[in-house]
Known about the structure:
Blueprint: E1 2-7, E2 12-19, E3 23-31, H1 33-37, H2 44-65, E4 75-81, H3 85-102, E5 106-110, H4 111-117, E6 130-135, E7 140-147, E8 150-156, H5 162-172, H6 179-187, H7 212-225, H8 233-262, E9 266-270, H9 277-289, E10 293-295, H10 307-318
Parallel strand pairs: 1-4, 4-5, 6-9, 9-10
Antiparallel strand pairs: 1-2, 2-3, 6-7, 7-8
Bound molecules: 5'-O-[(R)-(carboxyoxy)(hydroxy)phosphoryl]adenosine (KG4) and zinc ion.
Amino acid sequence: MRILALESSCDESAVAVYDDGDGLLSHEIYSQIDLHRIYGGVVPELASRDHVRHLLPLVKTALADAKTSPADLDGIAYTAGPGLIGALLTGAALGRSLAFAWKVPAVAVHHLEGHLLAPLLESDPPPFPHLALLVSGGHTMLIDVAEPGRYAVLGETRDDAAGEAFDKSAKLLGLPYPGGPELAKLASGGRASRFAFPRPMLDRAGLEFSFSGLKTAVALAVKDQGREGGLAPETRADIAAGVQEAIVDTLIAKTLRALEQTGYDALVVAGGVGANRLLRERLAAAVARQGARVHYPRIEFCTDNAAMIAVAGMARLKAGKTESPAIRARAQWPLSELST
Ligand code: KG4
Ligand code: ZN
């Protein structure tokens, strides 16, 4: 079976063609980062309009690259939520309409399920069941993944997501949007030991996270250190290193706790923060010491893309979970509602 998949939940317009026998045949991505940078974050209305401009040309390129014609397709998958509602509707409208015109089923995909199943695109996919650490700009969750389609959330953040903590700290340090990768770059030249930022919730039992206190601590450090003539370059780098270390430490401690609790020996790390090098290295080492293995998507499939939506869409298409002709998208969509 072969499907075309669309992703447009935030500021990336992406299209992929995936075949259950031949694997990923093409994937295209257009990032809107340059459009939003001057505003310091994603402007929803601008995002929707830019998706309208780019999605259809990307469909044409993705089909051509995959040497696939509409007649070869068995379905069209699109991200139906959660995300920015206008942005989601552009992809849902296009996906649903193409499916109608080309007389194939339409498949509505949950964005987080896409992130969770992205490692299935790799040559050494994770076994089921496994534990997943989902760390993106909007979510920080530990999830028990029984099989594709069956997810139980074991713990999540009470306030900011890990990616948000990266992004907000980066903003306080005057770094451009999106802050996570910029902060990681700055941190590589800094000393993590100089600032002891809080590791919230570590002293408590359970698998919940909280990152909002970290942002306050960073704001105080920036104010305190910057009193006389702004922050010195090495101080900025030291703060960045301290923040990164605090986030990574917290994520690792709770993940190890969840591995112990579930008894699973495989861990998937999914979502944009999974692109962070320090997290990848430290987690791989810590998990190996516990006798388990980490499975990552390749770096380009950690952040938003359509290849992951194709994989999740294929699983749903095969399970017969297709859409009525209505065009539907959901800004909020709890992951727990997927498992039936
Ligand atoms: O999964 P994603 O692309 O979009 C959402 O669905 O949220 O994740 C984006 C998040 C942003 O907060 C971004 O700053 C963060 O992932 N991120 C990183 C890195 N690359 C992306 N955070 C830390 N280090 C990175 N290398
Ligand atoms: Zn995402």
